[in-house]
Design a protein that fits this description.
Helices cover 17% and strands 53% of the residues. The chain has three helices and 17 strands.
Length: 277
């Protein structure tokens, strides 16, 4: 989704301007309101394939080709990779010894769970688009386990994460909410298209924040000078410690000669970053 919202805003502006030009040109050569209404009434023809069986066949092939389960314990899993749609995903630290998944999602969510090597993969099959509310998926992670990776992506829905350790943590929501607290990770990446993300935890390495039409609030341990910064603002606002960056197409590089990097890409939303000792 890198720079996606900026590109979207630019495309909208260009198309709007092009529309105005074409309207003026049309009326200049004698097109009337009546002609336009007639064209709209006739409509634009297109061909559709409304065969839902194709999706069912896809789902069946997916389930047959992968050894999947609906829920359970996964003693070999050392990392999690989740990519689902219209589901609330909870990642919770527990005193258990292995990763466990509780699947309380709707059947139409089409959740597929499988192990690929040492990574637990959870995704939505194509039929997941049929539901408006897919339910809840809970992943229990041992409190003393340091995951190799924790990647959770939700198209529409929510992420609620707390108490885990991981070498890498990536949280992404296209439309919805992210809440993450009490975590300790190496690299941290947060992306929120529309909605809000409230993040409170410790990142020991690089941080990347990407905001579309959303609000991201990050509170992390350390000092502002622990990072070098690459800041890009489309038409939003970035509050970094005591500094504010806003306006149109603002780019700012801050070199503190630090050992860690923080990238902040804010299209039309707002990003707040605070540091605590």
């Amino acid at each position: 989704m890198k720079k996606g919202w900026k590109i979207f805003a630019i495309i909208c502006a260009v198309l709007a301007g092009l529309g105005v030009v074409l309207c003026i040109a049309g009326f200049a050569i004698g097109v009337t309101d009546e002609d336009v209404r007639g064209a709209v009434h006739r409509g634009i023809g297109f061909i559709t394939d409304d065969d839902d069986d194709d999706n069912d066949d896809f789902d069946n092939r997916t389930l047959q080709s992968a050894k999947t389960v609906k829920e359970g314990e996964f003693p070999n899993a050392k990392g999690i990779d989740v990519e689902v749609n219209k589901v609330k995903v909870e990642v919770v630290a527990t005193d258990e010894n292995v990763i466990r998944v509780k699947n309380a999602t709707d059947e139409e969510a089409g959740i597929v769970i499988r192990e690929e090597g040492s990574t637990l993969e959870i995704e939505t099959s194509r039929r997941g688009n049929r539901t408006d509310n897919g339910g809840r998926l809970t992943i229990y992670v041992p409190r003393n386990m340091k995951l190799t990776e924790a990647n959770v992506q939700v198209n529409e829905g929510a992420i609620d994460l707390s108490g885990i350790q991981s070498n890498e943590l990536e949280l992404s929501v296209e439309r919805g909410e992210i809440t993450a607290a009490d975590f300790t990770v190496g690299e941290l990446s947060v992306s929120c298209g529309q909605g809000a993300a409230n993040i409170k935890g410790t990142a020991q390495a690089d941080i990347d924040l990407e905001c579309g039409v959303a609000a991201i609030n990050l509170e992390t341990k350390g000092a502002q000078t622990d990072y070098n910064y690459e800041i890009e603002v489309g038409a939003g606002e970035v509050n970094l410690g005591g500094q504010t960056f806003s306006g149109l197409a603002v780019e700012k590089t801050i070199n503190n000669h630090a050992g860690k990097e923080m990238g902040i890409d804010c299209a039309t939303g707002k990003v707040n970053v605070t540091f605590v000792q």
